[in-house]
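Trying the structure run again after the queue cleared.
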Amino acid sequence: MTIDEACSTFLDEELRFRNRAEGTIQGYETVFRLLSRWADAQGLSVLKDLDEGTLRAWMKGWNCRPSTTRQRLAQMKKFFAFAVERGWAARSPMATLRPPRSDSPPTMPLTLREMRALLAAAVRKPKERGLILLMRYSGLAIGDAVTLSKEAVVGTELTLRRAKTGELVMVDLPHLVVRAIRRLRGPHPDFFWWSGRGKRVTSAKYWRARLRDVAERAGVAGFHPHRLRDTFAVALLTAGVAIEDVSSLLGHSSIQTTERHYAPWDRRRRDRLTRVVRAANRLDPLLAETDPLGIGRGDDAERDRPPAGRDNESDATGSWSSQFPENWPVWVLSASGQHCLQAC
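Done. Tokens:
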């Protein structure tokens, strides 16, 4: 079995036949092109020529960010697992290759101030405004959002299968969002934004650029459409929704994916860890000797007090770094916030 034949079979049978997302297929095509070019330059053509040593030599020439390296390693592990299953290789040469530490920035949802600014900047752009509201209150990735069909929204209930994972997503939308998208007049009668003809990945790229233009006018630094999805997830977690339920609403195929991105915002987890630590402190002999009355209680008043000189919405720069995450859903669901969304 040649390298090119193995890659082509994997793409056809493991990805295209299973209707995997276009972006997923393109990612594998990219890494397979890199592998094919490098193998040709090294005079390698048969799959069995790829052992741990040759793959390590190939990886040294990647010259990419750690996050990209991690993604490519995951892709190659799936490819070689497929090869072993088919009998093309006795074992996977990827078994001992370890990914680098991730350089991914922490998940940073949008503040209420930033959401207000985005909606104000899109007040005369109903398609952009509707897309912002939909992604914020449904948690859809932009590829799923811009190709959303009208039949997927019945009343306030949104139901679809994620293109990336194939997982079923069901979420109840606020009436504000439903009204905003129902007013849209798209290029195709069956869709809100999509023409129904072009590639989904192309449509996502187009609307991603449109939303970034809105963010630039709004003065929202570091904006990426995925932050709207992050905001949806973090709002639920800090309101006390179980991370298992948030994982289902996001359409993740594994709860490990949800935990990797959003575990620091899991209020239930933080509260549980606080109770465990306080219970352990009650058994500590040193604390019992020095502070018998305050043992295990913690300083709730000090913990819950907002930082000095800060308002209850965001700090002077709009940063989340100095905020208490548990206060955030109060900002989002406040009467003033709802008034702003309706007015915009």
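The domain at 3-86 is CATH 1.10.150 (DNA polymerase; domain 1). Worth checking whether this holds up in the mutant runs.
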